[in-house]
Model the fold of this input.
Amino acid sequence: MSGDIELTTPLTPRAIGPLCAGQQVRLTGAVFAARDAAHKRMAAHLLMGQPLPVDLRGQVIYYVGPTPPPPGRAMGSAGPTTSARMDPYTPALLEAGLAGMIGKGSRSAEVVSAITRHGAVYFAALGGLGALLSRHITAAEVVVWEDLGTEAVRRLEVRDFPLVVAVDSRGNDVYATARFPYRQD
Amino acid sequence: MDVREVDVAEITEAVRRLCIEANTELDPDLLDAYARARDNEESPLGRDILGKMLENAAIARQEKLPACQDTGMALVFLDLGQDVHLVGGDLTRAVDEGVRRGYAQGRFRASTLDPVTRKNPGDNTPAVLHLRLAPGRDIGLTVMPKGFGGENFSRVRLFPPAAGLEGVRRFVVETVDLAGSRPCPPVIVGVGLGGTLELAALTAKRSLLRPMGRRNPDPDLAALEMELLKAVNRLGIGPQGLGGRTTALDVRVDATPTHIGSLPVAVNLQCHCHRQASATL
Done:
C-alpha cells in the first residue's frame, strides 16, 4: 500500500525508534528464517554459553517453515507461523542482539517487556497468505542446521515484504488494543 | 446386491489428486465468504487483509502453490460403501501412499512427525484416516489438510448437564476469545455437542466438512449457530487479530446423543485458509 513505511535490514535503533504499533511497513533486505526446532537449538547454545552459529545483532528473524520451492523459484509458500510458540526462547535471543521478529499473533508479557528493554520490534505478517508472501522473497539459502528440513535456519532476501508493527519498542501491543474499537460487550 | 470390486490403487490416485487440489485451489464458496466479509468489514486494515486473502487464493491457484505453507496434517475422511470389496492391497497403506505422492508432487511441506523424538520422516505420512461404513457401492473421499494454527487452540470440555446451553455458548465464545490473534482469524468454528470425549471432537471436526453457508437442518441448532456467529463477531478480534468485525466466517454446530450425566462440547478452530477437496469413486 502506498504510504507504508519503508524499512531495510539490518535494523538500527534509529529505524526502530519511531515505529508505532499498528503502522504498516514494507521490509527489504536479508532476514533469517527460523521456527520451533531452530529456536530450541539456539536457546541451548546460549544456555551453554556457546556463540550462536549466526550473528543476530541488528538482524530480523522470520518465524516461517516454507514449502519447498517450485523449479525456477526462490521460495515456495512462506507465510508466518504462530509466534507464541517461540516466546520461551525469545528473551535470550533479544539479549543476544536480535532486533526484530516477524510472525503472527500475540506474544507473552515477558516477550513484550524484553522487546521494550532491548529497543526491539515485533512485526505481524499475514498468516495463511503464503502464496502471496512468496512473491516478496527473492532468494533463500540454508545457513545452518540443514538436518531440520523445513525448520532449518535460512537466509532470505525479502523485497517490500508487507508487515504491520505489532509490538513497538515502547511496548505498545497492537494485539492488546486493536480489538477494542470493534468489541461489543 | 453384487459386490463391487475396487482396487486400492484407485484410492491412492484419488487421495494424491485431492491433496494437490485441496492445498492449491480454495473453494469458490469460501472466496465468496471472504468477499462478503470484506464488503461488510468496518476496519480499513481488516478490509485490506480480506482483499489480500482473495489475492493469495488467486496466486495459489494460478501458480499451483499451496495457499498456506502449513499444508497441515493430511486428514482423510473415507466413507466406504458396504457393498465394496477392496482388492490390491492394504487400504491404510494405499491412503498413505496417496498422501506421500500428493505432497511430494505438489511440493508441500511435510509437517507430520513423531511426537516423542520429533523426527520427521519427510513425507507427511501417516494420514489421519477417518473411516466409516456407508450403505451402497460408492466410496466417498474428502481430503482436508489441517493446519495447526487453528488446531492448537481448539478445546474440549465435559460439562455437567447443569451447565446447559448457556455454558456451551460461553465456552465457545471464550475459546475464540482466548485464541485471539493466533489461529489465523477469521476462523471457522466447528462445535461438536454431545457424545463422548472423542466423539465430541470428531463431530466438531466433521462439521468443518459442511459446505460453506449451509446451516444445520435442525432449526434449534441452526439458531444456535447464528447466535454464536454473532457473539463471536462481537469480540472485535478481526482479520489476523488486528481488529475488526470479522472474527469468524462461520460457526457450525453438530450434535450427537450423550450420557445422562454429561454435556460434552468440543470446539475445533479452522483457520481462514480452509482447505478441502472431495471426490466420489
Notes: Helices of chain B lie at 8-24, 28-40, 44-63, 91-105, 148-151, 164-179, 197-207, 219-233. Chain B has a mean pLDDT of 97. The longest strand of chain B covers residues 248-258. Chain B touches chain A through 51 residues (CB under 8 Å).
